[in-house]
Amino acid sequence: MNDLVDLGDLAATDPAIVGGKAASLAQLVRSGVDVPAGFVIPTGVFRRHQGSTLDDDLLAQLEVGLRRIGGVSAPVAVRSSATTEDGAAASAAGQHDSVLAVVGTEAASRAVLRCWASLWSDRALAYRAGRGSSGGGTPSAGPGTGTGPGTSSGPASRAGPPEMAVLVQTFVDADVSGVLFTGDATVIEATPGLGDQLVNGQVTPDSWTVDDQGISDRVMGTTSHRSDRVGDRLRRRPLSDDERGQLCLTDAQVLALCRLGQQVSLLLGGPADLEWAITGEQIHVLQARPITTALPPGHLARAHPAGELHGIAASPGTATGPVRVIAGVADFRRVSPGDVLVCEHTDPAWTPLFGFAGAVVTEHGGLLSHAAIVAREIGLPAVVAVPDATQVLRDGTTVRVDGDRGSVTRLEA
Any idea where the PEP-utilising enzyme mobile domain is (predicted)? Predict the structure, then answer.
């Protein structure tokens, strides 16, 4: 029996079979776009799987699949591809697990189980509940015993419980990685090395805006480290002297990314959100999905009145409330409805807080990070990349957060 679906197969374009992430990439593969080679463990396997390990037959198929895309000892990325993500109405950005730099069949099998389980994580349940999906309830049976109740709100757009496929792809050791949004203008964010820190909002990336007249805006970020694969681990190291003090993309690369974004937008039928990686001069598309929400109108603002803190307008809207400085999950119990979350950077595990917080302010991050995308989808005002926010803003201080302009104003000392 062969359950695996090659990313180039026609069946891989059906999100009900392979989930939203894999279906979009399969469409690009069949149109000649450079996407890392891979295969999918489809939703049907998730639906019928029993136990806390992969059965012998599926484990053997997984090993065959790994050999086909580079060998059992070659690193791969094992990525979630749920029926409730990467759709036109909901991205579920960062809400399910992906495991990078996976080496070997046993490690890959553990990563598959982790991806399956993440469909029922607290953050995924909170996200689906916030998006109005009845798939946000507690599952009566999770991965290993079938699936839980709910309604898919993702790209499959079908009644029935959300389901998880798993995408396994060759790992790209990137020189530069990033994200881009297309639309009236193309916005690009990038960082040296791998893009895990960028999409997780842990760094403030370099950014560019490209319109009909060419590159209209260039802003250097504050990234001091890069992430790279070393064996089966991701390691951070300080940027080299050559990498410091200069943008991580040339103008030629920016324009090439813009052209690629327009090509993908045409294939997907509308403005697109792409994650990409560059090795040498080759651009690889790692993810592509429809844009679910427009960027805030003030994301390019540079001037702010004296006395305001300012950063990047990441999610529109305004909110006034008391500051709650958050360092990690242990601080969740201190958060009350309407509080303004202030942190160094957000984490996907914090999604349950987004449902009742008044606004979010971070020291690091970009306009296109997972947290910024989710904040826009659920209507949470957000300003990111506010220097020293956790030091300058004290617990309990009342502030006004303007996610349209990218400003934070203290209303009391």
Answer: 336-406
